[in-house]
């Protein structure tokens, strides 16, 4: 059971193993790994002519690193379909990119041990920049993994998701 303080706030950190990814209003089936989302504010060092010899620092542009999603290969073609919206060699000249809908917003949800939604992050204007299949090896004993790299224009935590009331029960029931 997770430890809580007197105010009822959780003290134990959440596990990274309970998560779900959602786009187009549907959960992505079988996602087994999502790389860590990261945002970096670039640094601008500047100084004026009359200032002391040392420059001062101000924030510059914000950059968001792409996230990578992995899952076992099945007959679900959602990864490949989304990647093909950005570039599909089978489409004719002038129709290689699905400009109307290649971008989409996605959500990454984290759950507590009981399977209750604990946190959500929203990613904006996402699109697939890489799609990869498994490395095939006849002597390996491994699951075939497919991967997409998702570019995005920022992410924010959804503060409308409140910490869940963690369940407490006794077994057997008296």
From TrEMBL:
Q: Which InterPro entries would you find in this protein's record? A: CHP02241, Phage_T4_Gp19
- Please name one Pfam family that this protein belongs to: Phage_T4_gp19
Q: Name one GO molecular function term.
A: structural molecule activity
Report which residue ranges the record marks as coiled coil: none
Q: What domain of life does the UniProt record list for this protein's source?
A: Bacteria
Q: Which PANTHER family match?
A: CONSERVED HYPOTHETICAL PHAGE TAIL PROTEIN
Specify the protein name: T4-like virus tail tube protein gp19
* Gene source species: Flavimaricola marinus
Cite the source lineage. Bacteria, Pseudomonadati, Pseudomonadota, Alphaproteobacteria, Rhodobacterales
């Amino acid at each position: 059971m997770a430890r809580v303080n007197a105010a009822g706030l959780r003290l134990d950190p959440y596990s990274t193993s309970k998560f779900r990814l959602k786009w187009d209003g549907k959960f992505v089936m079988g996602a087994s790994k999502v790389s860590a989302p990261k945002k970096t504010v670039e640094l601008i060092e500047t100084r004026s002519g009359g200032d002391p010899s040392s420059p001062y620092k101000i924030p510059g542009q914000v950059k968001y690193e792409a996230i990578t999603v992995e899952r076992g290969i099945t007959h679900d073609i959602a990864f490949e379909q989304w990647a093909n919206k950005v570039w599909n060699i089978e489409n004719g000249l002038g129709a290689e990119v699905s400009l109307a809908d290649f971008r989409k917003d996605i959500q990454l949800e984290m759950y507590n041990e009981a399977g209750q939604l604990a946190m959500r992050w929203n990613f904006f204007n996402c699109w697939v920049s890489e799609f990869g299949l498994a490395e095939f090896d006849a002597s390996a004993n491994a699951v075939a993994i497919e991967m997409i790299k998702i570019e995005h224009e920022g992410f924010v935590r959804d503060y409308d998701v409140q910490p869940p009331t963690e369940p407490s029960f006794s077994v057997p029931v008296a």
